[in-house]
Amino acid sequence: MKESVDVMANELNLPELTFRGMILGMILTGIFTASNVYLGLKVGLTFSSSIPAAVISMAVLRMFAKSNILENNMVQTQVSAAGTLSAVIFIIPGLLMSGYWTEFPLWQTFMICLCGGVLGVLFSIPLRRAMVVHSDLAYPEGKAAAEILKAGSASHNNDNAAEQSDSGLKEIGLGGIIAGGVSLCTSGFRLLAGDVQWAFSIGKAVFNLTAGLSLALFGAGYLIGLAGGIAMLVGMILAWGVFTPYFTTIIPPKEGMDLVSFASSVWSSKVRFIGTGTIGIAALWTFLTLLKPVISGIKELIANASRSASEKSTHRMDTDLSLKAMSVVFGLVLIGLFITIYSFVAAAGFSSGTTIGFTILGTIVVLIISFLVAAACGYMAGLVGSSSSPISGIGLLGIIITSIIILIAGSSEGIFADPNGKRFAIAFAIFITSIILATATISNDNLQDLKTGLLVGATPWKQQVALIIGCVFGACAIAPVLNLLYQAYGFTGAFPRPGMDPSQAMAAPQANLMTTIAQGIFNNNVDWTLIEVGIGIGIAAIIINSLLHRTNPSWSLPPLAVGMGIYLPPSADEPLVVGAIVAYFVHKYLKNRAQHRDLAAAKDYIEQHERRGVLFASGMIVGESIIGVIVAGIIVVSVTSGGSDNPLALVGKSFSSTASWLGILVCIAAMIYFVRRTIADRLNNK
């Protein structure tokens, strides 16, 4: 479907950054950040707050006079930054798990989030033209948010687009109701399974098949395109058809472990590291391919800064933060970063020379690696969306690279002669990677938001300001929420008080894994072979992608998507792949059916139906996201008041088999309805 920019917003200079919008954004930031921190620590998953924030903003601000699409866009931009920043919890609890911290120091935790987040905004600014304006990357959640904002705005303004908007809102609403209802029955009532897994063995090899039943991910897959979907399918086949069966032949299962659990444990402990290697080399290749347009973007920023006011004619929709403003913000962040790292190193009690040396080293590592991951994460968000991007995989790469650098530096300084030296080095690697991961999460979100802004006619520099504001509010919220949850439940392997119930501890699975890896590197017991195999696969994918592109410019096999197919759980991969394949066949069917029309009519016919599919898919993302927020809030209230962590559950574990079959049937029925509605020539919208 051809992307269109909102005409009204493009032509008129509407209010964007407003006081009421920032206040609403601040309130939503607190709610979404707390929910994301809780879910991330509990089960290792976070949700994108962009689309729910857009929907809530439209509902609230339309009660005020002269609210507009760009104001709503700024609210969702601000809130999405704060909600995304909460992914820093994928690593920072490792400082307690390693025994180095006994609580989260408020100001240091705040500075980790703030400095990393603002760096993510600054580093992704030169990428905007290359990866958003002049790119065919899908940015599924960015497009979905734009469609929602445009549909809601046209209806609200009651202009000539209102009739078309009403139809669009019906598609979004219907998709939202269906996906939201399924999500409520899945994550809330537990009547439907979120995924279904089967396992079987051939000899000693165990094969695991998983069907993910998320309609939101199916909708995102519909938006990402066939190339990304096929690449992820290749990664899935490698992970579950080759590597997992191989490792199950050489690793004995634990006593009493069923085949599904055995295969999943092997994938988690072995195969995921192969995916990390693939993502790592693909991320490096992505950065190298983007280096030329990034340099061009930087040159353009410098050229704009050197022009006089009378010479500047850049349209507001192509105007980033000025070089002067970026330099001031970067200087402040650099000072804050240096002070924060210095305070952490100084607490270890080293000599002043060693303290300064490690502070400078840490600052340089943060700046260089953060710039690299900004490009990689922006590209991943463009491929599969912010929610599905393997941010924890970037965290794994960060902890590996940072630990190796600190290991080399520590050996030359002789700090490991001190019994506490290794303990400090592990904690320092986690601390530095926490800042890098904060940068990664914001870069992952920033370009998605800028894609939304491009489609609705927003001013980029104002969005970048909103993102920085979101980072400030998010950083303020994360530290106290982390301390609250730690004091209430503790983390696996780390408790604030003796005698606490381990069964109530927050698992923080990614932080646990990254802490284990850091300890393994400093104790020299990491299996590097797995990462090397992943690098080899990534190189092969890069070569195949280049050959395909030379054969036909429209063909591709994105190497990063292959790595994500290996690294992400199949419950996330499978619906994305199915959605991408369905989109291809729907387009092919519509194209064949439009052949008897003239060229203009055929093009209009295809675009009209595909827009319907995009809106319905966007609605599915909206519905599941909002229900996820609501259920998360109910869970937080229930658990903090001493209740169940499944307060809405209507059935027990004995219902799991029935829930699996019901989940499959409902999900298939919803997908069939989606396809039939997308290709139908006439609709009954009653």
Return the average pLDDT rounded to an integer: 80
**Count of alpha/pi helices:** 23
How many beta strands in the DSSP annotation? 2
Low-pLDDT regions: none
Strand arrangement, major sheet:
1-2
Largest sheet: 2 strands, antiparallel
Description:
- By secondary structure, the protein is mainly alpha-helical.
- Helix content is 73%, strand content 2%.
- The chain contains 23 helices and two strands.
- A two-stranded antiparallel sheet has the order 1-2.
- Helix 10 packs antiparallel against helix 22 (599-640) and helix 11 packs antiparallel against helix 21 (570-593).
- The radius of gyration is 25 Å and the shape is globular.
- The model has no long low-confidence stretch (mean pLDDT 80).
What secondary-structure arrangement, pairings included, does this model have?
Blueprint: H1 7-11, H2 19-43, H3 50-61, H4 69-85, H5 94-97, H6 106-124, H7 128-133, H8 140-157, H9 162-188, E1 195-202, E2 205-212, H10 215-224, H11 226-250, H12 259-306, H13 323-346, H14 352-384, H15 391-413, H16 419-456, H17 460-489, H18 509-522, H19 528-551, H20 559-567, H21 570-593, H22 599-640, H23 656-679
Antiparallel strand pairs: 1-2
Helix pairs in contact: 2-4, 2-17, 2-22, 3-4, 3-8, 4-16, 4-17, 6-13, 6-14, 6-16, 6-17, 8-9, 8-16, 8-22, 9-22, 9-23, 10-21, 10-22, 11-12, 11-20, 11-21, 12-14, 12-15, 12-19, 12-20, 13-14, 14-15, 14-16, 15-16, 15-18, 16-17, 16-18, 19-20, 21-22, 22-23
